[in-house]
Amino acid sequence: MKELKEILGEVNAKIAAACARAGRDPSEVEIVAVTKTHGADVVAEAWENGLRIVGENKVQEAAWKKPASVSGPSWHLIGHLQGNKVRHALELFDFIHSVDSARLADRINFIADETGAAPHILLEVNVSGEKSKSGMKPEDVSPTVRHIMEQCPRITLEGLMTMAPFSENPEDARPYFRRLRELRDEVERELSVGLPRLSMGMSGDYEVAVEEGATWIRLGTVLFGERPKVKKAAVQGDDGVESAGGGLDSYSGAGPTVRILD
After folding, report:
1. What span, in angstroms and rounded, lies between the C-alpha atoms of 146 and 151?
2. Which 3 state secondary structure label does DSSP give 136?
3. Is the dihedral of CA 257, 64, 221, 166 positive or negative?
4. Domain ranges of the chain
5. How far are the Cα atoms of 36, 53, 138, 156, 170 from residue 227, in angstroms, in the given order?
6. Which end of the chain is more exposed for a tag (fewer CB within 10 A), N or C?
7. Could you read off the pLDDT of 170-183 as tens digits, one per residue?
């Protein structure tokens, strides 16, 4: 099995080649190391190999993993954010990629005003229109950006995020990545706002995403291998009946399953 250092060398070479094809500077592209279902040891390995951004899908997972991990990385929330987890997300994460409505932006701004936080966010856009994916409709992006500019002074909006539909062929993702970049450019012109960040591309299609303008690519499997399977440990209740709720997640770096509410 290859060491992470060797894998990163190959990934960075592919990023550089994609940038060359697109006439871009490789320094414009950063890797978000997605450590979902991996333990704190993987965060440490990523940090030791020069990866400076950790991406997590769930607030609950970061709640135990971040305190157990090496200090230094910037922590980014890349999964869906529920309104009742905003307070804890602002405590844990430096950046939120997945704001999918003006209502959620209002909630973030409200909590940030209470706590003194200064959140940095991206708007998640469902470019493909797939019902299974989170994200706002493309036509809602401009009014949401305007709303944040006018009504959410605590928030710094830095760009857009999307996920392409799954396909074995990376080229199938190109129209969706291109559309996100074009949408960003349209909003910048319309509202005279700077949105420099584009979070798009994962392990199977990141080279295409870089060619289409990605500044953050979210890589997990290509760096760390297949994710460990997650199982809930049985917990015995007061009535003596065991259930799967709560308990420990039985993957690498097992940590408590915490119910987090504002």
Report:
1. 8
2. strand
3. positive
4. 4-229
5. 7, 18, 31, 32, 21
6. N
7. 999 999 999 999 99
Contacts of 171 (CB under 8 A, 6+ apart): 208
| Burial letters 128-150, b for 16+ CB under 10 A, else e | beeeebbbbebebbeebbebbee
Answer yes or no: pTM beyond 0.85. yes
CB 178 within 8 A of CB 160: no
C-beta atoms surrounding 20 within 10 Å: 12
Residue 129 pLDDT grade (very low, low, confident, very high; cuts 50, 70, 90):
very high
Residue 14 in contact with residue 207, Cβ under 8 Å? yes
Q: Please say whether the structural domain 4-229 has been given the CATH code 3.30.450.20.
A: no
Please give the helix or strand (H or E) that residue 238 lies within, else none.
none
Distance CA 4, CA 11 (A): 10
